[in-house]
UniProtKB/TrEMBL annotation:
Organism lineage: Bacteria, Pseudomonadati, Pseudomonadota, Gammaproteobacteria, Pseudomonadales
Signal peptide: 1-21
Name recorded for this polypeptide: Copper(I)-binding protein
Keyword DNA repair listed: no
Domain of life of the native organism: Bacteria
Length: 161
């Protein structure tokens, strides 16, 4: 089969859409657009963001996560306390039936401690989410440039730890 330049362009555009709009299913859970920001090579920590929707009739609980890209991963959230924005660890995050939780800068996020490799724009790394009911779910996290829009839902702020 011979491809002309236009055919190759169409195939390239279709593949680019698949890479940018990555979604994962695990039972009744729908996990959308895992992403992280590119960081300087010396950065010891990073964060991963995504959206989790429980489309089932039973609750499920995110118990934690891990990745070969970091020594440790923790669920974190930002809260207002005494007029200040503070970050705190969350041991587990319950997802009620019909609930969607958006992990984004300034809100819930997966904190990546002691990065084992630089997070460089255009690359991906695996992240395994541990759920009570759905079990272990591996997703691929897209690393995006600082000025690249993460998704239509995410705000542009980024808190460094």
């Amino acid at each position: 089969m011979r491809f002309n330049r236009f055919s190759l362009l169409l195939i390239g555009c279709a593949m680019a859409q698949l890479v940018n709009a990555h979604e994962f299913e695990a039972g009744s859970l729908h996990i959308d657009h895992p992403w992280s920001r590119a960081l300087p090579p010396v950065a010891p920590t990073g964060a991963a963001y995504l959206q989790i929707s429980n489309q089932g009739e039973q609750s499920d609980t995110l118990l934690g996560a891990d990745t070969p890209a970091a020594e440790k991963v923790e669920i974190h959230e930002h809260v207002h306390a005494d007029g200040l924005m503070k970050m705190q660890r969350v041991d587990r995050l319950e997802l009620a039936p019909g609930q969607t939780v958006l992990f984004k800068p300034g809100s819930y996020h997966l904190m990546l401690f002691n990065l084992k490799q630089p997070l460089q724009a255009g690359e991906q790394f695996p992240l395994t989410l541990h759920f009570d009911r759905a079990g272990d779910v591996q997703v691929m996290v897209n690393v995006q440039a600082e000025d690249e829009p993460a998704s239509s839902n995410a705000d542009s702020g980024h808190m460094h730890h």
